[in-house]
Amino acid sequence: MSLPALAEISLNDPLPINPDLKKGKLENGLTYYIQKNNNPQKKVELRLVVKAGSVLEDDDQQGLAHFTEHMAFNGSKHFKKHQLISYLQSIGVKFGADLNAYTSFDETVYILPIPTDKPAYLKTGFQVLADWAQGVEMKAVDIDKERGIILEEARLGKGASDRMMRQLLPEVFNGSKYAERLPIGKEDTIKQFKHDALRRFYKDWYRPDLMAVVVIGDVQPDDAEKMIYKYFSGLKNPVPARARPEINIPKNTASKTMVITDKEATNNMLMLRYPLEKQPTHEVIGDYRQDIIRNFYKSMLNRRLGALTEQARPPFLGASAGSEPVVAGYDSFVATAILSPSGTQAALDALMQEKNSVRQFGFTAAEFDRAKKIEAREYESMFNEFSKSNSASFAAEYIRNFLTNEPIPGIKNEYLYFKEFAEGISLEEMNQFAKKATPDDSVKLMFYVGSNKAGESTPGVAELQDMAAKAEQKTPEARAEKTVSAKLMTTLPTPGQIVNEKENKLLGLVEMTLSNGVKVTLKKTDFKNDQVLMSARRAGGMSLFSDADYYNAFYSNPVVWAMGMGNFSQKDMQETLAGKSANVRTSMDNYSESIGGASSASDIETMLQLLYLRLTSPRKDEALFQSLISSQKELARNSWAHPETVFTDAITTTIYKDNPRAFHPARVEDFDKISLERSIDIYQSRYGSAKDLHFIFVGSFEIDKIKPLLAIYLASLPVTDIKTEYQDLHINPVQGIVKKEVLAGNEEKSTVVLSFTGPSTYTREENMRFHAMVDILNLKIIDVLREKQGLIYSGGMSGSFERIPQSRYGIDAELPCSPENVDKVITALFGEIKKIQQSGPQQEDLNKVKQSWLKAHQEELRSNESWLNHLQGAVYYKTEAEAILSVDKRIRAITPAQIKEAAQRYFNFQNYAQIVLYPEQKK
Ligand SMILES: [Zn+2]
Predict the structure, then answer these.
(1) Are 48 and 41 in contact (CB under 8 A)?
(2) Cα–Cα dist 731/615, whole Å
(3) Rounded to a whole number, what is the distance in angstroms from the first to the last CA of the chain?
(4) Cα of 310 to ligand 1 centre, how many Å?
(5) How many Å lie between the centroid of ligand 1 and the Cα of residue 95?
(6) Is the pLDDT at 909 greater than 50, yes or no?
(7) Of 315, 321, 414, 640, which cross-links 346 as Cys (Cβ 3.0–4.6 Å)?
(8) Taking a C-beta distance cutoff of 8 angstroms, is the pair 250, 62 a contact?
(9) CA of 97 to the centre of ligand 1 (A)
(10) Nearest partner of 519 among 721, 714, 723, 724, judged by Cα
(11) Shortest CA distance to 560 belongs to which of 710, 437, 386, 685?
């Protein structure tokens, strides 16, 4: 693809908008964005954006912006309560309050993806949006019913992070109204507010001059515009209209230090927040040039911080710094570090050193050069892919334009500007910018956010201030140039050959055998312009290693990953790969090992080189091994403060007893059982041989061009005789009815987990019936447990239908609720299951599931990921890949009678586990 001819670009010219976009305004002030886009086909993404969020709430309305959003699903002018969600489900849209909408401080956004198989669907879609805009009913009885659901939602958000955030935010917002307007609101208000307070919010702020409608997808723009006129030009602004206040946040003028701790905090973190600043403007093309500089700055600074984690005793586990958006109109420079065992002073020293070094000396020529390459590659892929961009991502961009005035010149223009400006930005200009953009330390908020459980040494405020003063006084040092090898491989392997090649015309595949026995399946697609995906999966995995070797096997991949490959550490390799887009990952589970990779079309060779090095040359590095072990220990230690971790562990031990091979959350002592040598041995014993590997490639490559590369990098892989069958580890669940209560956590929160398992007989049809049954029950959980009974906010069921090592099924229901509702939740769920066992599902519910599956399958057929997974599955399970062509037929064939039988088969009330989490102080 070539760029449009380069016209004269003047920095003072106004920023244009994407020429493919139709942006306009109705007389009543409603803004609209319309764009035709065919990815995915037969679908339109609709959005209603309201520039009104919790910050506009009056004192008696705290939480009602969010409450209003919920009410939009509870009855409107054209859709009775329950009718809307049910209608949307019937045309294949998964739906429910909050699933497709969100409320924040400054805005409320409604998300509606509509299939366009029939023209009526789209019309109804616009009707839904118009109803949300000004047709929500808000009947008293429905409002009162929703209170419980929202209180359940509030309950779900409770815990250590929420408790700590509530202390932190008032400081960040510096006493402004934002500090008192968390979108979830106040529990008392939610319980008691007067109905009219809610209606008042809706009337005051849901008005066309604060709204935008976004329409992106498989639709003619003129038709869409007509519909916008039809459905939205009748909306009225209230008279008199309340002025929408601009909420100003006063600038911090004094520093403040806070230590915020919680027994259940899962990490120890240091956060430096510098005074808020007004967001940069985006009026002229010169502003876009500034954005390019801003991006260079942020990416270079963060690469510096990232590089520090690659050492035996890193100063922090991870860190980031740079300007970030806070609320509408405001940015703030924020530097954060997750503390490592090296402690608080080390983290502060490192953060300050990097920040002040950049402020004083700027970046090096080599760093800047690499940053340009990396950004250039990103712009190039965006440009290559723009005709295949997803409608939803365009919609997100236009929403940001409406809310924060983010520039939307379109990727063609953006790429043009980058090409025009990037080279011309000198290191000197870059470093001038760095000096200005990096704040000094005269005013800042400093937070230590972490755990205060027994055995933790938490600094006090004065101590923290002393540490910061020490760190600030250190003289920054300039960063030395580091040279890294420009090439991944200096000598290439001796190529093998492609010995056999045949075509599968039906599926559009080329299948090959290489001279070392490795097999390859190629599927060339045009779903994306610049994406190639690769995978291979082989039986074996951890099942081939003894219990004593469990941790060495389990962590063999992370250990090898952390140390790099060939002559490269992980970070060095990233530098060498600057400007390339390619990656390769290996992983191992109980019964298999897998290889996955992705690249752009022009970087396939790089991906294959990475693959070759990963498989043949793991790198040994004692220091990086120690760094991995100590950071993993720190993470594991902290994670146990979280009630969820205790609960997950209890679930495993209840269901699998003391089986040493059943997965459980990582414990500190696990990491003492890992040996560097043995982990590498295990890795090499599996990945060092390519025996029975079958690679799948899907994406935008040329068959003739990829073939010689396969001969060089795949046909040359060593093949030694290793075992490529798994062994049954007999990780079997307990039998009978097992019940367990787990006490953990401070908040009044419970979670109910119910687990049904047993042997099964796998067929494609049965697999589908099983999953349809699970999905129908999920509809029931939302419809009955949530909407009708108000017992839960979210929750659901998941099912697995395994073939390896034995044919078995598993169903897990997970339902967070209030402790006093635990029994009601279990009774209600069992009731729904029993109804299906006795009378089968309602035809309507089965149809909803089928519609959403058919819709999803339509999109999967045009997705590289889905094809990769499907072809990989067919190879691994030795089934016919052609089955993908008859998915629709199998979906349509499912009957209510089959679901009824399935429910009888898979839910045995004499054989299940029930594990319930209660608060530590159970009443
Ligand atoms: Zn909600």
Answers:
(1) no
(2) 29
(3) 67
(4) 41
(5) 13
(6) yes
(7) 315
(8) no
(9) 7
(10) 714
(11) 685
Coil, helix or strand at residue 830: helix
Fold type of domain 498-713: Cytochrome Bc1 Complex; Chain A, domain 1 (3.30.830)
CA 793 and chain centroid, separation: 21
Question: Can you tell me the distance from the alpha carbon of 61 to that of 202, in angstroms, rounded to the nearest whole number?
Answer: 11
DSSP string covering 600-657:
-GGGHHHHHHHHHHHHH-B---HHHHHHHHHHHHHHHHHHTTSHHHHHHHHHHHHHHT
Contact residues for 341 (Cβ-Cβ < 8 A; gap 6+): 313, 630, 631, 633, 634
* 816 pLDDT higher than 70: yes
CATH class (in words) of the domain with range 37-232: alpha beta
Residue 922 in 3-state DSSP? coil
Q: How far is the CA of 183 from the centre of ligand 1 (A)?
A: 9
Q: Ligand 1 centre from 642 Cα, in Å?
A: 24
| Contact status, residue 616 vs residue 718, Cβ threshold 8 Å | yes
- Rounded CA separation 44/221 (Å): 11
**Given 3-state DSSP classes, what are the helix, strand and coil percentages for the chain, each rounded to the nearest 5?**
45, 20, 35
d(C-alpha 105, C-alpha 847), whole Å: 38
pLDDT digits (tens, 9 = 90+) for 636-647: 999 999 999 999
pLDDT, tens digit, for every residue of 325-362? 999 889 999 999 999 999 999 999 999 999 999 999 99
Distance CA 602, CA 437 (A): 35
- What's the 586 CA to ligand 1 centre distance in angstroms? 39
Chain position carrying tokens 């999920």: 778
Residue where the block lists tokens 């800047």: 368
Q: How far is the CA of 817 from the centre of ligand 1 (A)?
A: 15
Query: Could you give the CA distance from residue 188 to residue 338 in angstroms, rounded to a whole number?
Result: 35
The Cα 747–Cα 744 span in angstroms is: 9
Q: Tokens representing 285? A: 């093309």
- Per-residue pLDDT tens for 130-170? 999 999 999 999 999 999 999 999 999 999 999 999 999 99
For all residues of the chain together, what is the average pLDDT? Answer: 95
Assess contact for 389 and 217: CB atoms under 8 A: no
Tell me how far the alpha carbon of residue 781 lies from the centroid of ligand 1, in angstroms.
17
Q: How far apart are CA 643 and CA 631, in angstroms?
A: 21
CB 307 within 8 A of CB 479: no
What CA–CA distance (Å, rounded) separates 236 from 210?
11
Decide if 831 contacts 792 (C-beta within 8 A).
no
Asked if 15 and 288 count as a contact pair (C-beta separation under 8 A), the reply is yes
**Would you kindly state where each structural domain of the chain is located, as residue ranges?**
37-232, 256-389+400-473, 498-713, 737-918
Query: One fold for both 37-232 and 737-918?
Result: yes
The CATH number given to 256-389+400-473 is: 3.30.830.10
The one-letter amino acid at 199: R
Could you tell me the distance, in angstroms and rounded to a whole number, from the CA of residue 643 to the centre of ligand 1? 23
Residue 4 predicted with pLDDT over 70: no
* 410, 413, 415, 418 alpha-carbon torsion, rounded to 10°: -120
pLDDT digits (tens, 9 = 90+) for 680-726: 999 999 999 999 999 999 999 999 999 999 999 999 999 999 999 99
Strand partners, 539: 592
DSSP 491: S
Question: Which of 169, 163, 196 shows the shortest CA–CA distance to 182?
Answer: 169
φ/ψ of 351, rounded to 5, equals -60, -45
Instruction: Looking at the structure, give the CATH architecture of the domain made up of residues 737-918.
Output: 2-Layer Sandwich (3.30)
Output the CA 102–ligand 1 centroid distance in Å.
7
Rounded to 5°, angle at Cα 905 from 900 and 908:
115
Residue for token digits 């929750």?
795
- Give the mean model confidence (pLDDT) for residues 911-920: 97
Residue given tokens 């008293």 in the structure block: 140
Q: Quick one: pLDDT band at residue 2, thresholds 50, 70, 90?
A: very low
